[in-house]
């Protein structure tokens, strides 16, 4: 049983990815660090639960191995990653398009389209955009003129049908932003990371990522089930009492920021809901990401459908398949509607599907409209008070990890300056 101290060097509020990284760096520098977390487990939005043998991540999540901070902070071999194939399956008004990120993959898809829905030139142009971003240094991408993603795609010559059929369905699942109003710089960095790395999940679920980060913060005391009610420079009030510190790092999820830091502009949030279903596993379970590129016409909007066990069999008991279907926005469509629509996108029936859980995340991802500038917002709010999270960087696991690092570095620099006075 870990007790809340009356004093320590630093208090980190929130044991999500950013908070765990900040705590690890501060503790490794020799500081006495306390982490207070409202939930009963670490991870924030990067966590999982196991129910009757099914691994249910908190929403549909992937771990991109190209992120520099992921390679720097995690032991990827220990996570036993399972990689999804590069590409996606798109349900179009004229049939299903299986698009693989390679020239041969694009060529094999053209017969499905017959040039009537998406021009072949748009497919190759899209492949060229991804390839160009993959070869470009990240600093050059950050220095590009900034606009919204939709405008940038049109400037690169992609036709309206290609955008609406191929690009919009995919990016809606990435940024939870159907309007494609996300900063073009953020989008180009994502294209770059997708092309350079692999999209994966740990064998035991994304909770393994957070557990590993918590283990690396082993010298810090972590108090679970201890929500913070008030923060100020040098002070944190919790249900367990008040702790005073030389530095306070607020690393809560973006939805809790306005409550603890009312002077900070509230992050604009993109909500999401994921529906988990099970059915008997089959030899034809498709590991590709499935998206819906059809004309809407009033249908339930699903941003993605994924048969998780086609890539990670450990996500379900033997003989069972786990399917994750996601939507964006504050509304939560009826489970039966989602189940029927997901089955149509996969091209199967839903008579043998079993509903396992529905997970709604109001603050699933911070919005990132232009202007984003250099993508990084200051970690220090005032002397003794700091903030970390993907709402202060790029909306991604990479942004969350780096933000935790930046907050810890700012604390250490400031404390070193104070010690030298």
User: How many E strands?
Assistant: 20
Major sheet attributes = 8 strands, mixed
Q: End-to-end span in angstroms?
A: 38 Å
Number of helices: 13
Structural class: alpha/beta
Helix content: 25-40%
Query: Mean of residue pLDDT?
Result: 91
pLDDT below 50 for ≥5 consecutive residues: which ranges? Answer: 103-115
Instruction: Report the β-strand fraction as a percent range.
Output: 25-35%
Write down the Rg: 22 Å
Morphology = globular
Description of the structure:
The protein is of the alpha/beta class and 421 residues long. It is 33% helix and 26% strand. The chain has 13 helices and 20 strands. The strands form five sheets. Strands 1, 2, 10, 11, 12, 13, 19 and 20 form an eight-stranded mixed sheet that branches. Helix 1 runs parallel beside helix 13 (397-419).
Compact overview of the structure:
The chain is of the alpha/beta class and 421 residues long.
Essential attributes:
8-stranded mixed sheet, alpha/beta, 421 residues, single chain, 33% helix, 13 helices, 4-stranded antiparallel sheet
Secondary structure layout plus pairing:
Blueprint: E1 7-13, H1 17-28, E2 33-36, E3 48-51, E4 54-57, E5 63-64, H2 68-73, H3 76-79, E6 81-83, E7 87-92, E8 95-100, H4 103-113, H5 120-135, H6 138-142, H7 149-155, H8 160-175, H9 184-196, E9 199-202, H10 207-216, E10 221-223, E11 228-232, E12 235-238, E13 241-250, H11 257-260, E14 269-280, E15 289-292, E16 304-307, E17 320-328, H12 335-346, E18 354-366, E19 380-382, E20 385-387, H13 397-419
Parallel strand pairs: 1-2, 1-13, 2-10, 7-15, 13-20
Antiparallel strand pairs: 3-4, 5-9, 6-9, 7-8, 11-12, 12-13, 14-17, 14-18, 16-17, 19-20
Helix pairs in contact: 1-10, 1-13, 5-9
């Amino acid at each position: 049983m870990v007790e809340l101290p009356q004093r320590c060097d630093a208090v980190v509020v929130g044991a999500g990815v950013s908070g765990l990284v900040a705590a690890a760096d501060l503790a490794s520098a020799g500081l006495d660090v306390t982490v207070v977390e409202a939930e009963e487990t670490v991870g924030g939005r990067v966590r999982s639960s196991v129910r009757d043998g099914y691994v249910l991540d908190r929403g549909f999540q992937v771990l991109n191995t190209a992120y520099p901070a992921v390679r720097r902070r995690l032991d990827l071999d220990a996570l036993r990653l399972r990689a999804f194939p590069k590409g996606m399956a798109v349900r179009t008004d004229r049939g299903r398009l299986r698009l693989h990120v390679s020239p041969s993959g694009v060529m094999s898809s053209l017969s499905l389209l017959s040039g009537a829905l998406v021009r072949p030139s748009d497919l190759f142009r899209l492949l060229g955009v991804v390839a160009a971003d993959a070869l470009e240094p990240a600093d050059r991408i950050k220095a590009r003129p900034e606009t919204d993603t939709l405008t940038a795609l049109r400037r690169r010559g992609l036709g309206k049908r290609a955008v609406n059929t191929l690009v919009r369905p995919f990016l809606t699942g990435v940024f939870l932003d159907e309007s494609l109003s996300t900063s073009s710089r953020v989008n180009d960095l994502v294209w770059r990371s997708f092309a350079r790395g692999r999209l994966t999940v740990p064998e035991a679920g994304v909770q393994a990522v957070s557990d590993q980060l918590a283990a690396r913060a082993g010298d810090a005391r972590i108090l679970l089930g201890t929500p913070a009610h008030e923060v100020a420079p040098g002070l944190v009030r919790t249900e367990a009492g008040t702790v005073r510190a030389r530095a306070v790092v607020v690393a809560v999820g973006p939805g809790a920021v306005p409550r603890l830091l009312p002077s900070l502009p509230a992050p604009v949030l993109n909500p999401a809901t994921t529906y988990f279903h099970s059915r008997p596993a089959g030899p034809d379970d498709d590991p590709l990401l499935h998206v819906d590129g059809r004309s809407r016409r009033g249908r339930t909007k699903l941003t993605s459908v994924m048969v998780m066990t086609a890539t990670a069999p450990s996500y379900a008991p033997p003989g069972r398949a786990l399917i994750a279907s996601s939507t964006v926005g504050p509304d939560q469509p009826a489970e039966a509607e989602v189940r029927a629509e997901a089955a149509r996108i996969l091209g199967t029936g839903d008579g043998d599907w079993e509903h396992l859980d529905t997970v709604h995340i109001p603050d699933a991802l911070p919005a990132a409209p232009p202007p984003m500038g250099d993508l990084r917002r200051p970690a220090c709010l005032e002397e003794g008070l700091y903030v970390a999270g993907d709402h202060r960087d790029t909306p991604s696991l990479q942004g969350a990890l780096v933000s935790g690092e930046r907050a810890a570095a700012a604390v250490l620099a400031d404390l070193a300056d104070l010690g030298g006075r």
